[in-house]
């Protein structure tokens, strides 16, 4: 969004990307963006494909490359969905483990005893961010 806003406001002359499929994996988005860039006079350069979008061949190649990028994205999506369905069918539990209930009182006591956030997290098998948040809330409210 910011890139296109800069292009429309005239802050940039060209957009440089390593590969077209790194810029967009949706053919519709790619074509609309390339068309918009051409209309506002901003060049689009893809280093890997070495495309000249001012020629008919360059435009055709950008369409073909964009179509393959979208095909690849759709294929990955289908494989992920199939893999998840297969895992569920085999009874595999998906997702991360639920965090154990946090005892804010224990965290605060350990903090008062001089343990670092990291030491408390390791001792209580909690994420450091949870320990940090509990201590921060306690410092603000003084409520356990």
From TrEMBL:
Q: Does the keyword DNA-binding apply?
A: yes
Single annotated GO MF: DNA strand exchange activity
One protein family per Pfam: Resolvase
- The signal peptide stretch is none
Is the keyword DNA-binding in the record?
yes
Which keywords describe this protein according to UniProt? DNA recombination, DNA-binding
Q: Sorted alphabetically, which Gene3D superfamilies does this protein's record hold?
A: Resolvase, N-terminal catalytic domain (3.40.50.1390), Winged helix-like DNA-binding domain superfamily/Winged helix DNA-binding domain (1.10.10.10)
Q: What is this protein called?
A: DNA invertase
């Amino acid at each position: 969004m910011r890139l296109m806003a800069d292009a429309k406001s005239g802050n940039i002359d060209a957009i440089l990307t390593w590969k077209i499929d790194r810029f967009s994996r949706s053919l519709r988005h790619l074509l609309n963006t390339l068309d918009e860039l051409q209309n506002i006079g901003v060049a689009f350069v893809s280093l890997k494909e070495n495309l000249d979008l001012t020629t008919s061949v360059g435009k055709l190649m950008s369409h073909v490359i964009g179509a393959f990028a979208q095909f690849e994205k759709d294929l990955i999506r289908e494989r992920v969905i199939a893999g998840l369905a297969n895992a569920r069918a085999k009874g595999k539990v998906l997702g991360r483990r639920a965090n154990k209930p946090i005892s804010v009182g224990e965290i605060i006591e350990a903090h008062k005893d001089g343990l670092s956030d990291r030491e408390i997290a390791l001792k209580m098998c909690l994420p450091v961010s949870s320990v940090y948040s509990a201590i921060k809330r306690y410092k603000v409210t003084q409520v356990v």
